[in-house]
Amino acid sequence: MGQGFDTRSVHVTMKRDEGVPTKVTPIHQTSAFTFKNLEDIENFYNGERDYLYTRVGNPNTDELGKAVANLEAAPTGIATSSGLSAIMVGILAIAKAGDHIIASEDLYGGTYELLANELTGFGIEVSFVSFEKDLETEIKKNTVLLYTESITNPLLRVEDLERVVQIANKHHLQTMVDNTFATPYLVQPYQLGVNLVVHSATKYLGGHSDITAGVLVGDEDLLTIARTKCVNLGANLSPFEAWLTVRGLKTLSVRMDRHVQNASKLAKALAKHAAVDKVYYPEFVAEKGNGAIVTIDITNQANIDTFFESLDWIKIVATLAGVETTVSYPIGTSHRNLPVESQQALGITKGLIRISVGIEDVDDIIRTIENALTIAKK
Ligand SMILES: *Cc1c(COP(=O)(O)O)cnc(C)c1O
């Protein structure tokens, strides 16, 4: 019997006892590694020893990639400088000029921009489509990849990953899923047959809003290509940030338990508030819970500026997933560059608020948000 998820997440540290038996992995904050002689250099290229230069590989970044692969039950993984660079090297491991990607239309704003504005410049064609509709009609001769998110941002649609994998397999396509909002604690897309799973480790994996990092996990053959892209495009993560992210991973289970409990209580409470038109909170994500983001729409019932000015200790940010409760304004930040028609079609309104529910006392969270809503009520 293998170890359980919680045990594995605590024991992510690789054993690196080079004479000093430290309990956790030391930070290998170095840009390069030394060689005894020319034969030793050859040994690196033969695969008989590790590490040459940190852009090419470093013990701390390796530790993070492997730790997340372990939690996703995937064969291997790499850590990168950001979630977006992990998405970039993952896509470039699959698609080249002339290929076509089908991407979900309700993606994280930064991913939308990467696909729409950058990858198209490399000659990669992208269609943004509703993954709830008939995906198969969108498949072309040059389609190579279906790209989506396990829980979408900011409206928290839960993707039917089994269906996506089934369609991909039928048409010999690859699949790639951004699992940032769910984390491997709730959903493990690789286990469902997804080829590449990507994380903005900036969010729950790190968990403390003090690093920017990404992780890509999946099959050895795709990861070998992605690793080369990461090296050649300079998308490596710094050793210190990898080390901090590994520290965050060790408490992923306990943080997620509290996050999801608090979020489900907040979602229930807000559904009853007179200033709220609509609460978006997913159902049936996993037995352990339904995620820790609650999105509300107050367009018709309350004044959005007053709400954001009445939040007391809750901070306004353009991110999510730290231990503190924070709120963000999708139309003003992450989704501001989405075409207006797409914003409207998706429901990203001027009254939409994304709440990243923290691990504080839930009564304090509920009281503070309810109070801001009451003040903002028209
Ligand atoms: C934040 C985020 C990203 C981008 O990650 P960075 O670490 O900011 O580059 C990608 N996908 C989702 C779902 C995110 O929330």
UniProtKB/TrEMBL annotation:
Keyword set, alphabetical order: Lyase, Pyridoxal phosphate
N6-(pyridoxal phosphate)lysine modification sites?
203
Q: Which reactions appear under catalytic activity for this entry?
A: L-methionine + H2O = methanethiol + 2-oxobutanoate + NH4(+); L-homocysteine + H2O = 2-oxobutanoate + hydrogen sulfide + NH4(+) + H(+)
Can you supply one Gene Ontology CC term for this chain's record?
Answer: cytoplasm
Do you know which SUPFAM superfamilies this protein is assigned to? PLP-dependent transferases
Q: What is this protein called?
A: homocysteine desulfhydrase
The highest taxon in the source lineage is Bacteria
Similarity remark: Belongs to the trans-sulfuration enzymes family.
Q: Which GO terms describe its molecular function?
A: homocysteine desulfhydrase activity; methionine gamma-lyase activity; pyridoxal phosphate binding
Q: What class of enzyme is it?
A: lyase
**What Gene Ontology terms for biological process does this UniProt record contain?**
transsulfuration
Source organism (scientific name): Gracilibacillus kekensis
Q: Which cofactor does it need?
A: pyridoxal 5'-phosphate
Which Pfam families does its entry note?
Cys_Met_Meta_PP
> InterPro entries given for it?
Cys/Met-Metab_PyrdxlP-dep_enz, PyrdxlP-dep_Trfase, PyrdxlP-dep_Trfase_major, PyrdxlP-dep_Trfase_small
Q: What is its EC number?
A: 4.4.1.2
